Amino acid sequence: MGGKSPVPLLVDGKRVDGRLPEDHRPVTMRVGVLPNASGSALVGYGNTVVLAAVYGPREAMPRHIALPDTGVLRVRYHMAPFSTDERKSPAPTRREIEISKVVRQALEPVIFLEQFPKSSIDVFLEVLQADGSTRVTSITAASLALADSGIPMRDLVVGVSIGKIGDTVVVDLNKLEDNYGDGDMPIAVVYRRSWITLMQADGSWTVDEVKKAIGLAFRAAEPIYKMERDTLKGRYSEQAIVS
Ligand code: CDP
């Protein structure tokens, strides 16, 4: 965030990719893409593409992480070396460690972890293409993969990024907007319950802008939430036809 963008980010109310401020990029979703995982999903927000794989619940390893009366959720977010314009070293960075933690915290409230004492549920997130908003795309992908695995959940989670270009609040930042915009606010929404399970912010926001950001995040989350449900239903009907 910050610095001077090589191109203007907002011209006559339109963004670099032609979107209006409140427009989300096209969203794509598939579940069950990795047969050997307990659950999996591939999610695209525009050119940002994230693969999520869930393993477990399984005996927590190493043993000392196991808790006697609840399960443990572990999340690893990682960017593939080929996902960015400049090759990214495959070694985990501080940024990846931080994103792994916040994605875990965005998901924990919806999983019935108490049903799986001494066990772990492991979520691996691999960013295959990065074009902004990878952490919120990861949240949507992880939520779908968890549901695909059949782990009991209170509801699905949707990640949406909200940003600022000058004084304009915009939805779903692409990489240019993420890198050169004036504010970045990733939000995780549990749509049906009206919960927010993650909210971070860079840049300075007025109270009115924060209220607007939350409203826009819920508006953008609604069709994505419906798509998650339809994608999971489609998966199950597909299984029913096969069996
Ligand atoms: O991806 P997200 O917006 O959640 O996190 P960020 O730290 O705000 O990163 C913004 C964007 O910068 C990412 O989505 C990538 O497109 C890009 N990026 C990159 O190209 N190389 C990195 N090592 C880190 C980020």
TrEMBL record:
GO terms assigned for molecular function:
3'-5'-RNA exonuclease activity; RNA binding
This enzyme's EC code(s): 3.1.13.-
Q: Basic and acidic residues bias: where?
A: 12-22
The residues covered by the Exoribonuclease phosphorolytic domain are 24-152, 155-219
- Annotated stretches, region: Disordered: 1-22
Specify one Pfam family: RNase_PH
How does the record describe its quaternary structure?
Component of the archaeal exosome complex. Forms a hexameric ring-like arrangement composed of 3 Rrp41-Rrp42 heterodimers. The hexameric ring associates with a trimer of Rrp4 and/or Csl4 subunits.
The family this protein is said to belong to: Belongs to the RNase PH family. Rrp41 subfamily.
The entry's protein name is: Exosome complex component Rrp41
Provenance organism: Thermocladium modestius
Q: Which gene encodes it?
A: rrp41
